Structure formats: structure tokens, C-alpha cells
What does this fold into?
Amino acid sequence: MSSETPFGLLVFARGSRTHDRAITPEARAAVARLRTREPSCRRYAADQLMQIYNEEWSEEDTLESPELARQLLAGSIEVHETGYAEVHFGDGGLLSGHSVGVRIHPDGTFQEAVVEG
It folds into this structure.
């Protein structure tokens, strides 16, 4: 991912799913696709979670989606053998220390954004 703050990268190559624990072409394609997707992952997470944040987590001020996206902190990226990926962000103090996960289908479309932990 192109980011000012580094992400940890985990690429799964489990022997039960790949020959010789090699990184699959699908995983390589997912990594290549994610290199430019940090901003869109942040926006997607913020758009999906803004209402939940404002209704359940905000003590005073509500946040609009762009501000919520700016608060998310780089975390980690998981890429699985099938090309499925998850991008994890720190909450920037907004969600009592819970992280935010963006789940991405092997074709690169967003599956969901969730509050984790």
C-alpha cells in the first residue's frame, strides 16, 4: 500500500492450500492491487462506519466521513491464497481501542467494513 505510515503485511501461503507453501498468483495480484488502495479503503471504512460511530461511540461531536477517514491509523494487511484481503486500521482513539477492518473480495471489490475486537 502506498502510505505515509507503514503497514505490516501478512501473506498467507499455507501448505494445506498451496503447493510448496508458495505465494499464489491470486495473492500476488491482490498485493499489487492494494498498492494504490489505501485512500479508497479509508473512505469505504469511514462511509460504512460513520453512522455506527455517531450513534454508538461519539460522546459529543458527530463526525462526517472525511474526518473519520483521516483519524484511521495504518495497521496491517492480510492477503490470503485466494486473493481475499483484509486491511486493518487503528481507531485513532475513536472506538475505545477497537480496530477497523476492511474486507476485500478476491476480485478487488469491497465486502464489508467492521469494528474489530
Notes: The two ends are 23 Å apart (CA to CA).
